[in-house]
Amino acid sequence: MNSQDNHPAEQNTPTMLVEVRRGNTRESVKRFTGTFLVGRTKECDIQVTESSVSRNHVQISFDGKQWRVKDLGSANGTFLNGARIHDELLQDHAEIELGTGGPLLALTVERPEPPKAEETLSPTREFASETQIIKHYFDKKGPEDIGEQTLMFRRAFNRAHKKKSKKYLYVIGAVVGVAIIIVGITAGVIHHQKQVIAQQKQKLDALRKTAENIYYAMKSLEIQIGQLEDIVILNAKADQIKDLL
User: Fold this and answer.
1) Helical segments of the chain, H only
2) How far apart are CA 62 and CA 51, in angstroms?
3) Residue 121's pLDDT is what?
4) Which of 74, 141, 158, 180 has the greatest number of CB atoms lying within 10 Å of its CB?
5) Exposure class string for 10-40: b at 16+ Cβ within 10 A, else e
6) How far apart are the C-alpha atoms of 244 and 233, rounded to whole Å?
């Protein structure tokens, strides 16, 4: 139970500002840097003497990273921004109500402001090498407290760098476009060659079919001629057969 009035604030702990906006209390505004209790008894860090408030109603603590609020089994409950809660993390701005329509406490986390850098005029620097000059004027990770001249050099360098980058993008775009055209032409040639090969294959198949038909026709004709010869030999006279043989 650390009140800022009696204990120094820890360096990394944000202060909790508590304002009692509704309810009977002796202190309507108080700051804390550690765990504190809110309830009806005088032992609580914030005493609210209302019938809807339990003896030890709610505990507010810092867990090392964030402030949180915990209901201690109160009879009428604790409401955070209108919703009943048991144990919840607190945002930087919140309101808790002790029972429905009961006392209202506004909670504000006061975070320490970062120290401001003192504005100093940097003396003229002397550089031992070109690397130091480049690092000082053009390194984006350099110190923030730089002079106006260095800022002017950096802006000019960034503008020139952007122009050069655009030129590179145009060149890359042109190369990609030419590559796409070449790929398209190549695909067209390949497609045409496939069509020609398919047509030639169809012609070869037709010739092969024609040759097969001629072969089978000749075989059929040969069989018919043989049959005619047999008929002629059976019906011919002896001297006619002798002439045939």
Assistant:
1) 130-138, 148-235, 238-244
2) 28
3) 46
4) 74
5) eeebbbbebebebbebeeeebbbbbbbbbbb
6) 9
